[in-house]
Amino acid sequence: MMSVHWLWSTLALAAVCYFLQDLFLMKKRKGLPPGPKGLPIIGNLHLLGKNPHQDLEKLARKHGPIMYMRFGYVPAIIVSSPEAAEKFLKTYDQVFASRPYHEASWYIAYEQRNLTFGQYGPYWRNMRKLCVLQLLSSHKINSFLPMRGEEVGKLVKSLKQAASDGASVDLSAAISSLGADMSCLMIFGKKYMDKDFDDRGFREVIQESLHVAALPNLGDYFPLLGVLDLQGLTRQFKALAKVFDNFFDKIIDEHLESKEHKQTKDFVDIMMGIIQSETSEFDFDRRHVKAILLDMLLASMDSSATAVEWAMSELLRHPEAMQKLQKELEEKVGLKRIVEESDLEGLEYLDMVVKESMRLHPVGPLMLPHESMEDCKIDDFHIQKNTRIIINVYAIGRDPSVWPDPEIFVPERFRDSNIDLRGQDFRLIPFGSGRRSCPGMQLGLTVVRFLLAQLVHCFNWELADNIKPSDLDMSEVFGFVTSRATHLRVIPAYRLAK
Ligand code: HEM
């Protein structure tokens, strides 16, 4: 147990160090972008509430699209317009392609050996190449098409049953469970039950990880205070790391012992195959496999499901848009059968709905933090090495100088427009852009489009508990995946011939 005397001495020493650093930073402030005035030691940390993307959007309206802030010891630039985002993610992409120290990833993701939080360099480049070519290629994504069809079909069946019983359903829970099942089948080759993982259950641990990893952590902003673990987060990270590590070890062992001949190789098979064939051009062992498994699991499980949840919420609030989408699907697919992935080509209104929903509700509103690897000048502003760069995609999607009536859901705004969401047009970047952009974009978009089309085509929907569409609560819970604060409860009515 740490003595009280020692605790106070450490805090006093930390305070003196940070105070001296404040004085030093004040001198260096010249040439930095404008930003809110900071307090001694904590800087601007007090300005961040439960939904930091919304707080930062308001601040940027006052201080500008390239805004300087300081979170404890860490200087940060908040980017809130398409033009500014283009400079950071395209013009100077290489300078800003690293990730900062992140205590959660340090403990949970094998000392940041994962792709998501790996620092820019040869190791990260090799890991990214491996994931893009071996795990997330079009060929690999297509090989899981039958699995996706089967799992979405099971969801339709259970909703059909609820419809014939006239029962209401928790659509958020149903979609999230489908996301978990599809991820497990693709990554591990089988579904895992809650009890296989930890007493708390599979999805709960994943959601806890995504939440705690995104929380403002004093250990990230005040390295000296990190050792004291005042928020208890380090303990939580270590406990989560143990749960994941045991789980991944068990799965890898099961794969190594299995004699089953699989037609479609899952991600564990592919990566263990690379280790066994000794063909890897870089250091790649069991620890790296586990780090990638963690990435794939955390990145895929809730992201697409949450995007569908938001799109369904907006369609329920806008019945005329729901009807237009049903009409488009009816013309393409007819009312005699459910949607196949091969139907998705050329569904213009579906694409417009997905874009509009991702504009208003980007799943990762602050993306993942980037870090500058050298000093750089942007718009005459001086950006120091090791500055944290936060791209506020949420603010970009609601920038009134780019989007007329930005708060209103109008899919038609994308009709006859060439704005795409794949990272080429900085007005709409839900998957990021440049070197660190999302390598799972094709898979994510496929799942979102397919599942959304299926739900809208197979059912008419009503909000449960007599809630009027205009009264639906749209509050958010911030995290690396930002989802609805309340679950979406609905009553489905099956609309197909059989
Ligand atoms: C609708 C679904 C998804 C959305 C909206 C989304 C969005 C994003 C965003 C905004 C980033 C950060 C970009 C940056 O920091 O510049 C990211 C990174 C990443 N995403 Fe996704 N994502 C989705 C689905 C997926 C899926 C299905 C996978 C994999 C199975 C995946 C894997 C990753 C990985 C590994 C990174 C880190 C890349 C790196 O740092 O090099 N994502 N994603």
TrEMBL record:
It holds the Pfam family p450. It is found in: Membrane. It comes from the Eukaryota. GO terms for cellular component: membrane. The chain crosses the membrane at residues 6-25. Heme binds at C438. PROSITE patterns: CYTOCHROME_P450. Keywords: Heme, Iron, Membrane, Metal-binding, Monooxygenase, Oxidoreductase, Transmembrane, Transmembrane helix. Gene3D superfamilies: Cytochrome P450 (1.10.630.10). This is Cytochrome P450 71AU50. It comes from Coffea arabica (Arabian coffee). The lineage of its organism: Eukaryota, Viridiplantae, Streptophyta, Embryophyta, Tracheophyta.
